[in-house]
Amino acid sequence: MALFYTPLPFHPGEISLHYKLHISQNPDFENPTIPHLSPLLSRQLQISPLIALGTIDCQGWPVTTLLGKSSGGGERKEEGEEEPLAQPLGRNGVMGIKAQVEGLWDPVVEVLVGGKGDGDGGSGRGSEKVVVRREEEGKGRMISGLTIDLERRKRVKFFGRMVVGALGWRRREGEGDDDGREESIAEMQLVLKVEQSLGNCPKYLNKRHIKPAISKPELLSTSTHLSLHALQLISKADLFFISSANNNSDMDTNHRGGPTGFLRVASHDDENNSESATVLCWPEYSGNRLYQTLGNLAIYPKAGLCIPDFDTGDCLYLSGTTEILVGSAAEEFLPHSNLCVKFSVVSLRLVEHALPFRGVLGEKSIYHPRVRRLAKERFAAAASATTTGELQQQQQEQQATLLHQTKLTPTISRFRFRLHQPNTSTSPTAASTYQPGQYITLDFSSHLNIGYSHMRDDDPRSLNDDFVRTFTVSGFYQQHQHQHQQQDQQQQQEQQKEEALGKCGDEFEITIRKVGGGVVTNFLWGYGDDESHQKENQYRREKEKEGEHLVIDVRGFGGGEFPIFQQEEQQYQQEQQKKTPTKTEKKRRIFIAAGIGITPIIPFLSTSSSSSSSSSSFLHLNLKILWTVKMEDLAFVWDVVEEVAQLEMGQEEEGLSKEEKKEKKKKGKGKRD
């Protein structure tokens, strides 16, 4: 039988998000939500082991819970006799839910059917009587839900209104409290009329096998200041459920998933400070671009969260206010994000063993991006290691033009870049904050971002890849554009050629290994010359003539100084300024590295960057390096050794001609071979 219906319009909150995020409003962009109980939902209700439910409490706060198939209170059932968690009832879009619940502190149970036994016609824990609440069909309390099968990565959303609900208590077979009282379990039954349903994609869901477990819930905390237990639960979460509302029109319950740690604690102040607020934050990853949850939050900035622990059965129920951060605001608060949500906790319930089931972790989602840390977390980490090593957003935007690639081994190359202002190729800009051992953050998104797509199975991580990478700077070279005020025409022409080739201005090098499947490293290997170093200049000239410079946006320098080296260097310089330097035996420092991990120490070993005011020779340090490498990387070792050897021969080579230097280098190459 064919079904015909008029598509539901987007509401103003959803439209505002579409506008802010520059989503095209073409005639083909329709709301795919089905205005009734769809066949897909009908099927998923009967096979999904979990259902997340949301509603609005009497104070207007959204609340969320998670229901699942349980052990049935100790009753044994034959294989195939398990009752479904939910099922459609007839053909009128009505569905029913029957589930064991946490009847004392579950906020959704409390709102819908009067948890704690305070509803009509019921009594408290241990009673076999039931609490019944009836709602007029079509005008009942709003309920949103999400059927979710983690093992198959299937999920379908629905929204409806409550028709009737019941909460019953019964004794658990063969169980009792330590004081001799018999344990009771609560069971909730709901009937609701479905008004909307929509299937969702399988992204950001880790597979889990759901199995029943005995539930003996205990309330641990109601303080909005997170306890250690709550913090640990949040830190290990790779999934939570969120409910939101479009005022009194409809609701939405959905999940947010990601790698462990994707949900960040932005603010967690001392419990003694009553004015402080607990704030959580999470990134909004690439999805179907309907923005139904965020659209609701734009109109009604309140949400209810349910954060389950599938290992222990503990559950954290939260309600609070929300703030949507878009574009630069999101980037400043949660770097590498174009969209994120701040959640300020207003009410909290931490319940131990609340869930009558457990989840055994299986295959993780291939769509998970890397964990994005808060800006203040990143800066705090840098500040703990160094006083000047923070990632600095330059007041003046910078770009870097690739000058050439030097192939050291089949998988290791050295890339040299020139720093300059945007839209110029010969206007150098100084990176005066650079210190040896730092990294540079480069943004490749203008070259690698191919735009939006809902799914991308051939390269799933690229959906949320910001193409921002950090590389250790293995060399920095500060050159001066104008060394002589008076120049003849020929000299000026030669200087212009030098500038065109990137030989003026601040230049830096990164030494990196090509990573299998690495988008950025594979992209870089496509530039430069892999056949011989002699052809690099010609290759670069041809590229420049064709206007094919590789220009990368620079986020800034940052990261780890080596305080011990800096202190000893300062002491050394002070001793050298004395007329009679004091000879003191220096402690031996040990640096351990594997493979390409040697790069942070290279600037300390080389004076090739000594023209930079912030770099100097550290060879007077009593330094021992323990460096392990693969056989195929021995050429890289020789390259580093040559850099150090040049320091010892520096004075001698100053008096040599170019031909003599070439001959000496040729002999050195013969020894290496």
TrEMBL record:
Region (Disordered): 67-89, 478-501, 649-673
Superkingdom: Eukaryota
Residues passing through the membrane, by range: none
Domain (FAD-binding FR-type) ranges: 395-564
Biased composition regions of type Low complexity, renumbered to the chain: 478-494
SUPFAM superfamilies associated with the record: Riboflavin synthase domain-like
Protein name: FAD-binding FR-type domain-containing protein
Organism: Sphaerulina musiva (strain SO2202)
